[in-house]
Amino acid sequence: MLVVYSPQYAIDIGSHVFPTTKYRRVYERVLAASSGSGEGASRSSPLRILEPHPASWDDLARVHSREYLARTQSGELPIAELAQLEIPWSPDVVEGFRLMTGGTLTAARHASAGDAPVVFHVGGGFHHAFPNHGEGFCLFNDVAVAIRVMLHEGAISSAAVIDLDVHHGNGTAFTFADDSRVFTFSMHQQNNYPAVKPRGSLDIGLLDGIDDEPYLRKLDGALTRVFAHRHDIVFYLAGADPYEDDQLGGLALTKGGLRARDRAVLRTCAEHRTPVVVVLAGGYARNLEDTVDIHFATFDEACSIEQQR
Ligand SMILES: [Zn+2]
Predict the structure, then answer these.
(1) Predicted pLDDT at 126
(2) Coil/strand/helix, residue 20
């Protein structure tokens, strides 16, 4: 399994509901499993770790406006923008997000080159970032940047985003609203942040409290629609926040249900021979260990799919 990770992902944002320590914790579980001390499919999966470089400012500018990037770089973000971002600004925060964006791009390059059917990024999924501002803990939209850079380089001519974070992928939908090369699918809790949900290619807003069975049924139908088109690459935002004990989510999926979700997505990509980049996106369980378990299960399912391919 190809894994992208950097210890620098543990960005210091002070005491916050967004646990940036989860990246290291998930990575440690990945290492432990692959060294044989864990369980599941990942136990027998040889690991190759890739350390990312920060995305360049030119790469970021494929999605973000030069004005926004200049404000971000200098720290001259207006109070209203900082309030929307909901995390503090610091040079380390900027560098951390540049690095994670570079991580998603690295994962995408390897996936599209056919180096592995699934590339697992222990980071990324900042789908609330818009071209001209950040929002909801998301400074740069890593997936949107990776897609735009790869399209620009001619490495891909189409892409799909499968966004199963509990929150709608507003920044991603907005960015690609007029770009027919990119299919954006988001399935999320309708009655949750963000209040305004720009239309993507396929949006499914779920009622509060939906649990495993109806969720998986809807996902099944949606995946058929996503793969009615051919895509050169899929970006899967495997958010852990549809979990029943999440602090920012209002759905009721169990860990078993989330694992079945991951299996459904990854198996469908495999059936269509489409390379996948997995990014973690959100996860705010009351108990951090639950968030780590859910993200690790996604990795384990990816290993299982890889062994079958
Ligand atoms: Zn979320």
Answers:
(1) 98
(2) coil
